[in-house]
Amino acid sequence: MIPSTSKRFSEIRESVQKLCQDFPGEYWREKDRARQYPTEFVQALNEAGYLGAVIPEEYGGSGLPLGAASAVLEEVQASGCNGSASHAQMYIMGTILRHGSEEQKRKWLPGIASGDLRLQAFGVTEPTSGTDTLSLRTTAVRQGDHYIVNGQKVWTSRAEHSDLMLLLARTTPKEDVKKRTDGLSVFVVDMREVLGQGLTIKPIPTMINHSTTEIFFDNMKVPAENLIGLEGKGFKYILDSMNPERILIASECIGDGRYFIDKATEYSKERVLFNRPIGQNQGVQFPIARAYTAIQAASLMVERALELYEAGEECGEQANMSKLLASEASWAAADTCLQTYGGFGFAEEYDIERKFRETRLYQIAPISTNMILSYVSEHVLGMPRSY
Ligand SMILES: Cc1cc2nc3c(=O)[nH]c(=O)nc-3n(C[C@H](O)[C@H](O)[C@H](O)COP(=O)(O)OP(=O)(O)OC[C@H]3O[C@@H](n4cnc5c(N)ncnc54)[C@H](O)[C@@H]3O)c2cc1C
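Above: query sequence and flavin-adenine dinucleotide SMILES. Below: predicted holo structure tokens.
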């Protein structure tokens, strides 16, 4: 296996690699064919305590810094597994950690840390607003000690395999807010209480096995005590959790890149044509070497973003750039790996085509490449806002 650039959390990295050995390609192929959620894998990660790694010890977690979550997800991907079934929990919970009340933390975090309570669903994207989050139309209207939620979400991944959902909804009409970022609020929805009673979940078949869904709210009741922080300030809270999200997705892409480079390198040494390994041809070597170089560079940016984040410093620039660089580098590595395998890359049994499909997602979700370039242009380089 190509080693990580990072020297941190080497014990965690080793034990994640070991855990992943119990979930070989055949396991993932089977899940992919049947479009099934990898319950056993998520359970194993939970039992090992990885999904509660960043929850403080006082709430039952391991109290580790974000770098530990990054190490876990990178190694999961580098081992050929797929962390997308459970990665959201590691960054969604940041909103509760940073903005939840003490009572809310005590209510939810210990269960999440022990694995008894799953917080895997994140309801932000809507069919009509897409990337333009401030135009979302789902409303939450206060009625006594409840909010009544109406509207629709799309691409709410893992909703069928989660107990809780972090939901962003409009509590003040757009035309009535002074600041355009005000008027949205964040709620923790206990989906077990409202499924079939105002909440409908419909799976969306996609090119990858991602358990994603569309969700419909029809007068769904959410207790007012499930509002996180202040009403109307939800967009800010969600933005706060975006840097860790970018960093963790970038870490997964680095893991994917290591997987593809490893596979391509090994195959190029074994496959003999014209009386020599194909890897002896520079036309085969150079794209692999280039992909490796790009992954190494992106990995350094992930480390830099983590360093700033963990020191409590501003890291928006580095978090965004690490996600951009890593998602492009993992895609280049995927393409190179497929090319190295030739026709065999298309055969399911080598897992390349599956990982190829899976890693493509990260140039679109959770934030598309253009939006990152837009952030860098406007917020880092000071160019005029374009939208
Ligand atoms: C498998 C999968 C899982 C997902 N999981 C979740 C989830 O769990 N929770 C959730 O809330 N969302 C989820 N998403 C949604 C994801 O975050 C969005 O797909 C993504 O943010 C892009 O939004 P969109 O698809 O509506 O594209 P659109 O917003 O319609 O954009 C389409 C294209 O236009 C480009 N574009 C738009 N505006 C501009 C502009 N001003 N300048 C330049 N380019 C622009 C975009 O970059 C993009 O390439 C998931 C998506 C997928 C595919």
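Residues 120-233 form a domain with the Butyryl-CoA Dehydrogenase, subunit A; domain 2 fold (CATH 2.40.110.10).
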